[in-house]
Amino acid sequence: MRPLNDVRGETEPASVNGRARGVLERYAALLPVTSATPALSLQEGDTPLLEVPRLAAWAGVASLYVKFEGMNPTGSFKDRGMVVAVAKAVESGARTILCASTGNTAASAAAYAARAGVTAVVLLPRGKVAGAKVSQALAYGARAIALDTGFDAALDVARGLTARYAVELVNSVNPHRIAGQATAAYEICDVLGHAPDVLALPVGNGGNISAYWAGFRRYRDLGRTRSLPSIVGGQAAGAAPLVLGHPVESPDTIASAIRIGRPASWESAVAAATESGGEFRAVTDAAILDAYRQLARREGIFCEPSSAAGLAALRASVAAGRTPAGSECVCVCTGHGLKDAQFAPALEDDAAPLPATVEAVAAALGVAERRGS
Ligand code: AN7
C-alpha cells in the first residue's frame, strides 16, 4: 500500500524541521490568529487519511478513505476547534471555560484548559456519557458537574450561564470552534490534492458538518481545490432531528456521542447538506454497530460506535442509489474506540478460560506443530 503522506499539492506543511505543528501554527493564515493569540498546542491535527479498499467494497463505492480523527491528542476531532477556542478565550482574558457535552467536547476542553493554565467546567448529562470520557475530563482536572437531564437541556444551561456570568462558552456555537474544525477539510484536500466527491460523517449538534462545508468552500475560494464534495450526514435513527425535520424530545441511541435531539447548528448543518447536494440519512443502531465492526475488522480502525454513523450512512446512501457507486469518498471517524469500548466485547465470543498450558492453547487454536519439535 502506498503511504498517503507523500502529498501532492500540500500548502501548509504538517511539520517543520521534524517538529509537528499543531492546528494553530499550521493553519494560522486561515484562522483568527493575531500576534496576541497564545501558541497553544497538543500537536493536534495531521490525522491519518487511510485508503480502505476492503471497506470501500463493503460500502459499495469505487474509492474510500477514512479520516481517522480519533488520532487527535484527546482521541476526537474536538481538539481541532478546542485549541482555537481556548487560545482565543485566553487571549481575551478569560480564566474559566465552560461547555455542555456528550463527552468528547468535555475531554478536549479539559485538556486544552490544563495546557493553557485555565479552569474548565464541564456540564454532563448524568448517566449518559461514556465512562472513559468522564475519567478523561476529570484526569485533566476539569470541574465536572452532572445534570439530571439530556445533552440539549445541558447546553441550554451552559448558554444561559455564559450569557450572564464571566465564563467562556466553548461549545461549537463558539465560531472559533468551527474555524478550527474546518482544518480537517484543508488536510483532506492537501493530502488528496483535491476535494473528494463525497464526505460522510456523523452528525449530532451539527457543528462539524458546518465546519467541513465552510472549510471546503474556503479552500475552493482560495483556488486550492476546484470542486466541492457532497456531504452525507449520518444520524442515529433514534436521534435524527435533521432527517425528520423537527427536534426530537427524548433522543435514544447506543451512539451516546450523537444522542442529541435539538442541534445547536441546525441551520448551517442543513445548509451544508443541501447546498453540497448531499443529504442526512438515519441509520439504525444495528447498522452503526455493523459499520463499527467492519472498520475494525476489515481495516484495523477502532473508532467509537458514534464515529461509525458516517460510514453506515454512506453505505445506506449508496444502496438507496442516492450516492453514485463510482464516487471517491472520505468517511470521517470522529472519535477513538477506546473512548466507548462497551460494545467491543460483544464482538468476541465469551470463551471459557483455558488451563495455562502450551498444549491447551495449541489444541484450542488447532495450529500445526513445527516440524522437528
Ligand atoms: C465522536 O462532545 O456533541 O455534529 O458534546 O463526540 O459537531 O456535534 C460530540 C459530538 C460526532 C457530532 N462524533 O459532532 C460533545 C458532542 C463524535 C462526537 C459528533 C460528536 P457535531
Short description:
With 373 residues, the protein is of the alpha/beta class. The chain is 38% helix and 15% strand.
Percentage of residues assigned to helices: 25-40%
Distance between the termini: 36 Å
Q: Which strands sit side by side, in order, in the main sheet?
A: 3-4-12-9-10-11
Tally of DSSP β-strands: 12
How many helical stretches?
14
The poorly predicted ranges are 1-9
Globally, the shape reads globular
Bound ligands, named by name, code or SMILES = ligand AN7
Structural category: alpha/beta
Q: Strand share of the residues? A: 5-15%
Rg calc = 21 Å
**Average pLDDT number:** 95
User: Biggest sheet, open or closed, and with what strands and sense?
Assistant: 6 strands, mixed
| Order of helix and strand elements from N to C terminus | EEHEHEHEHEHEHEHHEHEHHEHHEH
Describe this structure in words.
The structure is a single chain. By secondary structure, the chain is α/β, with parallel strands linked by helices. The chain is 38% helix and 15% strand. The protein has helices at 23-26, 53-59, 78-91, 104-116, 131-139, 151-164, 175-181, 183-192, 207-221, 241-244, 266-275, 285-299, 309-319, 358-365, and strands at residues 15-16, 19-20, 49-51, 63-68, 96-100, 119-125, 143-147, 168-169, 198-202, 230-236, 279-283, 328-333. A six-stranded mixed sheet has the order 3-4-12-9-10-11, sandwiched between helices. It has a four-stranded parallel sheet with strand order 7-6-5-8. α3 (78-91) crosses α7 (175-181) and α7 crosses α9. 52% of the residues are buried. It binds ligand AN7.
